Amino acid sequence: MNVSQTMETEEDLLTCLHIKFYHPQQSCRGLYGALPLGKRSRHSSDEPLRLGRDAQACTYALVDPRVSRKQFVLFAYRTPQSLDMQFTIQNLSQKGKLSVNSSSLGHLERVDLPDKALIRFGEYEVEIIRESGEAKGSFEVDFEVLAVPPSRETCVPSMTPVMDTGSCVTNGFTSELTALGPLETDETLMYHS
After folding, report:
1. Which listed site, 159, 186, 189, 192, has its alpha carbon 20 to 30 Å from 55?
2. pTM for the complete prediction?
């Protein structure tokens, strides 16, 4: 086997992280302008992959002032029992929580990344899917933008419940529905006399 065949074979076996972003205002804001969308990028396994607002401190940047300077980091690792490259995710944000499949991570907390994960921070939903490979020295990253939130597809419940305020909007005007009484009641708040 010649050298070019060896290189092609190794590239075919690279682990790939498919990272898919969704933000409710992504169509009217240039949030992903600094990401190499639709193009696989190769990374060394011994270098952490950082994502945040600061393009100099991070491997990849989001163009959004509400994102932390360093939002999160992915670390590659292998176990002695497996040829597969695995990843951990660590929250680098000092101000905001990061959730991985509904498990909340505080500042500097980390967790193993499953093969398919839903990451949430701020208004972002990020689906990360690990495509298995056997190469030890590097892995690939492929960025994509989703048209709908990945939580719809994965059926992971929303982190913050939406509460009905009892108001509705009709023809651009807000009207209170106080005459109808509360739309829902919480049984734990009701007192029996």
Report:
1. 159
2. 0.73
